[in-house]
């Protein structure tokens, strides 16, 4: 009896092991490990790690390159997340009213999302080619001056941001289309009877009802933006002059190019902290403003 | 009024047609530039369609680097990961939704926490763990280190929550084991979520780049994105062979666009489910 009760209690745990073991080995364990490494100085090669306390953090927070990376990260996040959400919602609103053949548009707008970022970034690096690339051809056709795009510190980040928006905007649109379809029609009709104008209806009814989708897209896009690597690696490698070096890219360079494990680990922990803080903040903000 | 709504409809059509054209244009540009000669591709203004399309560029690019190997690697690794994730996400989600145990709250909390931690932040320590395990530069390393996904667990958990617990109880009364109940009763009901898991995970892993390049330095183990990137840097020598680079990009992208066209309904329905799983 005792034995069967024991097995009964053990069985559910057995069911979780195929997921929990790799999760612990490749996620939870490494997370604790990187926290530990951030208090040490190490170069990968030497057998000894030197405990340095908070030195890595102190050095990081007094390093101008860190603040540049922080600024680039903030610009990149704001520059991708906000347009993706706003444009995605705008397109979904335009498409939501009956439009025959909109399935074709949906497929075309969604398709960049399934393609490998590396491959499409290579295509875009050809589009951004300064001499005869498509982007500059179009610009000069429209009467604007040609831009240096990826070679120009003021425009390189814009170039990377454009590719990122291009890739995710159709994806966000589909999310909003689903959300808009779930807005009850009788609610809208009732508002019509009350003589509400479209802007009013949108702000008072639609926007609150789709706010869970907005929250979801915001968090997912934000976490993705904080971790963007592929397009930066192909298009600019953090350059020119660090103008596209995000925190994540700085982390990659200090870990796998200059082997400063301590510094890299402190950047990693900063990233984790930022991610969790922003996720928590948006959940708190939305629990005040979200209406299910 | 009806004329007005017709004009509205027409202008919306025009708008979306133009937008779709712009969004799809990089793909068109990739294919037409893949067909040009090295001289023509540098012509200004660029030609919209090549003077004489060189279809042989595709074959030449295909043989210029071991692309069949790269693609094979991507397919093997992605398929293995899909199968393992279907298995362990199913087990985990079943335990979390239809079994009672003490650590349930803790495990759910840990998984939720994993949702918020950026995976890339742990790449450095994971790399060290893999090297300790002697799994760098191996298929096993590529597969095992990606074999659990918080997203997949959430997705399946959400689907299992919809399955009435009475079905599980009925199975238990009939003397079926939990394994049997899970795989013969619950999974078939949630098959559309498993289809979404399989497709999304396959696409993600096929395209995966950052992590695989860190843990495999051996060219024969490279996935297709990494292979394409090294062709771009080395074989293509940065801009000397743009038509071939475009051709290689095209056949890297093509299988995914094909998968997407065939399974677009399932892939787009993932949106429904992921939006749902975030609420639970």
Structural notes for this entry:
- The complex is a heterodimer of chains A (292) and B (280).
- Chain A is mainly alpha-helical.
- Chain A is 73% helix and 1% strand.
- Chain A has 13 helices and two strands, in the order H-E-E-H-H-H-H-H-H-H-H-H-H-H-H.
- Chain A has helices at 2-37, 55-61, 64-96, 102-110, 117-127, 134-141, 156-181, 185-193, 198-209, 211-226, 230-235, 247-256, 261-289, and strands spanning 40-41, 50-51.
- Chain A has a two-stranded antiparallel ribbon with strand order 1-2.
- In chain A, strand 1 and strand 2 (50-51) form a beta hairpin.
- Chain B is mostly helical.
- Chain B has one domain (25-279): Orthogonal Bundle (MetI-like fold), CATH 1.10.3720.10.
- Chain B has helices at residues 2-34, 38-41, 56-64, 67-98, 104-116, 123-132, 139-144, 150-161, 165-173, 178-189, 191-207, 210-215, 224-235, 242-262, 264-279.
- The model of chain B has no long low-confidence stretch (mean pLDDT 88).
Write the layout of secondary structure elements.
The complex is a heterodimer of chains A (292) and B (280).
Chain A lengths: L1 H36 L2 E2 L8 E2 L3 H7 L2 H33 L5 H9 L6 H11 L6 H8 L14 H26 L3 H9 L4 H12 L1 H16 L3 H6 L11 H10 L4 H29 L3
Antiparallel strand pairs in A: 1-2
Helix pairs in contact in A: 1-13, 2-13, 3-7, 3-10, 3-12, 4-7, 10-13, 12-13
Chain B lengths: L1 H33 L3 H4 L14 H9 L2 H32 L5 H13 L6 H10 L6 H6 L5 H12 L3 H9 L4 H12 L1 H17 L2 H6 L8 H12 L6 H21 L1 H16 L1
Helix pairs in contact in B: 1-14, 3-14, 4-8, 4-11, 4-13, 8-11, 8-15, 9-10, 11-15, 13-14
Strand order, main sheet of chain A: write it out: 1-2
**Approximately how much beta-strand content do the residues of chain B carry?**
under 5%
Characterize the largest beta sheet of chain B: strand count, sense, and whether it forms a barrel: none
User: How many strand segments of chain A?
Assistant: 2
- CATH T-level topology of chain B: MetI-like fold
- Mean pLDDT value of chain B: 88
The number of helices of chain B is: 15
* CATH class designation of chain B: Mainly Alpha
The gyration radius over C-alpha positions of chain B equals 24 Å
- Specify the overall morphology of chain B: globular
Distance between the termini of chain A: 46 Å
pLDDT under 50 segments of chain B (min length 5)? none
Summed up, the domain count of chain B is: 1
By DSSP, the count of extended strands of chain B is 0
